[in-house]
């Protein structure tokens, strides 16, 4: 399960780098995503 979380995190980071316009929104999503990983 943890490997899957890291895999999703990598995809999220890559997609954020490709779309810098939405970076601020993605930063909020990313913080939420990290919180979810910590809960799991």
Task: Describe the secondary structure blueprint for this structure.
Elements: H1 2-18, H2 23-39
TL;DR?
The chain has 40 residues and is mainly α. It is 85% helix and 0% strand.
Report on this model:
The protein is mainly α and 40 residues long. It has one domain. It has helices spanning 2-18, 23-39. The radius of gyration is 10 Å and the shape is flat. The mean pLDDT is 74.
Number of E-state strands: 0
Q: How would you state the average pLDDT, rounded?
A: 74
Using the alpha-carbon principal axes, give the shape.
flat
What fraction of residues sit in β-strands?
under 5%
Major beta-sheet overview: none
> From N to C, what is the helix and strand string?
HH
Report low-confidence residues grouped into runs of 5 or more.
Answer: none
Structural class: mainly alpha
Number of helical segments? 2
Overall tally of structural domains: 1
Radius of gyration: 10 Å
Helix content: over 70%
Rounded to the nearest angstrom, the distance between the terminal CA atoms is 9 Å
């Amino acid at each position: 399960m943890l490997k899957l979380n890291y895999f999703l995190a990598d995809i999220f980071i890559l997609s954020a780098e490709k779309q810098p316009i939405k970076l601020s929104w993605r930063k909020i999503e990313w913080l939420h995503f990290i919180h979810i990983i910590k809960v799991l």
